[in-house]
Amino acid sequence: MNAQNKTFEPSRRQLVVGATLVSGALLVGCSPADLLSAGAKTEFGAFGPFLKIGADGAVTVISKHIEFGQGNHAGLAAIVAEELDADWTRVKVEQAAANAKVYANLGMGVQGTGGSSAISNSWEQLRKVGASARAMFVQAAATKWKVPAGEVSVKDSVVSHAGSGKSAGFAELLAEAAKVAPPEAPVLKDPRTFTLIGTDRVRRKDSQVKSDGTARYTQDVQEEGLLVAMVAHAPRFGATVSSFDGTAAKAVPGVVDVMQIPTGVAVVAKSTWAARQGREALKVTWDDSKAEKRGSEQILEEFRAAGDGKGPDDLKWVPFDSHGDVGKPSDGQRFRATYDFPYLAHATMEPMNCVARVKGNSASLTFGSQIPTIDQLNTAKIVKTLPGAVKIETLFAGGSFGRRANFQSDYVAECVHIAKKVGKGQPVKLVWTREDDMMAGYFRPIAHHNIQITLDKDGYPAVWRQRVVTQTLMKGSPMPQKGDLDTSAVEGALGSPYLKATPTVDAQLALPDVNVPVLWWRSVGATHTAFVMEHTIDQLARKVGKDPVEYRRVLYERAGAKRHLAVLNLAMEKAGPAPAGLSRGVAVHESFGSVVAQVADVEVAEGKEPRVRRVVTAIDCGTAVAPNQIAAQMEGGICYGLSAALYGEVTLTEGAVQQTNFDTYRVLRMNESPTVETYIVPSSAPPSGVGEPGTPVIGPAVANALLAAGRPATSRLPFVRSV
C-alpha cells in the first residue's frame, strides 16, 4: 500500500505556545487541540487516522476513546464497518495514540472519554471515515474494470460488479484504492439500509482477550529495570509532609529509594511487595495546619443550614432556573422536603496505576488514560516539555466511572514525579492499593437539596422553590468556564420537564468550599438530582391522591416532554401488572441526551433491607448502534446505582476517611442483583449517551417502591440508613 505519511512538526509559534501552556496558562482564542498537540508526531496511511486496512484485507478501526469496560469499541467499530460494508468478523480495534489535534473528542475539544459521549461524538465522524474508504475501493474497482462506479457494490469486504461478474476483496484492490483521493464529502448510507448497526451482531471485540487473560492492563506491564513505587498520603486532605524518616524503609530488602514528592512520600522498590513493606516502615510527620478537619456530618449540617437560608453571608447563590413571578405570594397546599446525599467512592475494580519513563525533558507513559490531553499537559508541566511530545500508550482499564479523569492527573503526576527523580528513562510503575484509592479520593461530592412547593387547585406544582448545596466539580479546571453556573452540579434538575410544567420556579445553587477532593461520578449531577426530582414527584402525587404514573403523564404533556412520555409508557407496558408480594416504584430521568424510565419491583419486609427483584428499563438513546451493549450498560448502570443507593457512603471523622476497602464500603453482590430487562425506543435520531443514564434512575425507583409499600419518604441515602 502506498501510504501517505504525514508528520507534524511544531512551528516556532507553537513552541512558544507550548511553553506557555507548560507554565500553566491557557491562551484565550487558541484551539486547545492545536495547542496541546504541539510537539506530537502523527503518521497515518491512505485511509486516514481512524482506519487501517492490512495487506490481507483485515480492517482495523483506530479508537480515540479508551475501553474500560463499557464496550464502546464494538459500537465505534460498527459505525465504520457499516459504512465501509466490511466483513464484521474481520474487523478489530486498536487504541489511538495521544494527539488532541487528530483525536479530539468533538464535544470536549481535547482527547478524552467521558460524559457518555464516545458513540455520539464519533457518529458522523466515523460514518464519513467508513464511507470515504468505501468510495475509494469502489473507484479503484471501477477504474480497474473500466465500469461505471455507480454500478459497483460492496458487501462483507468484497467489491463486485454484477454486470461483468467481476469481484475482488479489499486485499486485491488495496494498492489501487490507496492511490484514490478520498472524497471531500462522502455519501453516507440511508439508515434504513443498515445491515450491521442496530443488530445483535454488534458484539464486543475484546471478550476473548479479557476471558483468556491476554488483555493488557497497567499491572501487566513488565519491562527490564522496572521499579515499583507506592506513596504514603496524608490522613487528612490538605495536609503536607512536615518531615519523614526513611531509614527503616530503606532497610527493607528490595527497596531502592525513598523520596518526597508534592503529594507525600514515595517508596521505590524492585517489587510491589517490597514497596508496600517499605511504605509501612516509613515514619512521616504531617503538617495538618491547613487540612480539612471537619467530619462529613458537620459538613452536611452546614449545607443544611445554607439550604435553609442560614448559611454564611458571603455564600454565593446562582440561579439555574427562574421563571414566573417568584416574589408573588402563593396559595395552595404546601409541600416541603429535604434530601441529603453522602460522599461516594468510585470503587473501580482496578485501583489507580501508571508506568512512566522520564529522561531529561522526555516522558512516555503506559496506562489506562481517560483524558490523554490533560495527562499530557500535567506531565509536560513536570518535565518541562511540549504537551504533545509526551507519549501515552493507552491500555485497557478496569473501570473508571469518572475516577481516571481529573484536572490534576493526580496519580499520573505522582508517577511522573517519581520517574523524574529516578531518571535515565528507567520505567517506574506506581501502584495504588484499594485502600489508597478509597481514602485519598476522589469522591462524588455530598449534596443537600431543600424543596418547597405550592400546589395548584388540581394538585400539580404551581410554585417550585429549590436550593441545592454541594461542592463544585470544576475547581482547578484548566478549561475556560462560561458564566458562574456549574451545570454539572445541577444537571438533571436543570431543564427538568417538571420545572418546565411549573408556572413559577425559583431554583438556585450554592457551592461552599470544602477541602475534600471531589470528582464526577457515573452520571455526575444526576446522581442526586434524579433522586430529588423523581421522589418528590411521587410524594406530590400521593399527597393529592393521584396515581404517580398518571401524575407524570400530565406533567410531561404540559412540558411537551414527548420522549419522557414514550419511555414511561413503554416501560409500564413491558412491566405488566405488579407481581404479588412486591412493591412497585417508577422513575424517569434524562441525562447525557438519553431518557430512561425504570420500573422496580421490590421486596419490602419488616425489619429487613429492601431487595430489588426485577427492573424493567426503557431507553430512548437515538439510533441504537449496539443493542446488546446498550442492554449491558443498563444492567451495569442499574447495579452500580443500586449499590450506591442501598449501601454507598464515605464518611469523614475529623477530616479522615473511615472506609478503606469493600469490608467497610459495602457494594452490591452478584446474588443481590435484580433481573434487568431493557427495551429500546426505536429512533432515527443520532445516538446519545448510554454508559451513564441508567445509573441515577434506580435509586428513586426503589425509594418510590418503598413509598408505595407504606414506608416513609426517603430523605437521606443510603437506604440502609433510612430503613
How would you describe this structure to a colleague?
The chain is α+β, with helices and mostly antiparallel strands and 723 residues long. The protein has 3 domains: 12-208, Aldehyde Oxidoreductase, domain 4, CATH 3.30.365.10; 218-290 and 352-431, Aldehyde oxidase/xanthine dehydrogenase, molybdopterin binding domain (Aldehyde Oxidoreductase, domain 4, 2-Layer Sandwich); 298-335 and 442-722, 2-Layer Sandwich (Aldehyde Oxidoreductase, domain 4), CATH 3.30.365.10. It contains 21 helices and 28 strands. A 7-stranded mixed β-sheet has the order 9-10-7-18-15-16-17, with helices on both faces. It is globular, with a radius of gyration of 27 Å. 51% of the residues are buried.
State the strand order across the main sheet.
9-10-7-18-15-16-17
Would you tell me the structural class of the helices and strands?
alpha+beta
CATH architecture of the largest domain: 2-Layer Sandwich
Overall, the morphology is globular
Task: Give the C-alpha Rg.
Answer: 27 Å
CATH topology of the largest domain: Aldehyde Oxidoreductase, domain 4
What fraction, in percent, of the residue positions are helical? 25-40%
Mean pLDDT: 94
Question: End-to-end distance, in Å?
Answer: 67 Å
CATH class of the largest domain: Alpha Beta
The largest sheet, given as strand count, sense and whether it forms a barrel, is: 7 strands, mixed
List keywords for this structure.
723 residues, alpha+beta, Aldehyde Oxidoreductase, domain 4, 3 domains, seven-stranded mixed β-sheet, five-stranded mixed β-sheet, 21 helices, 31% helix, 22% strand, globular, disordered N terminus
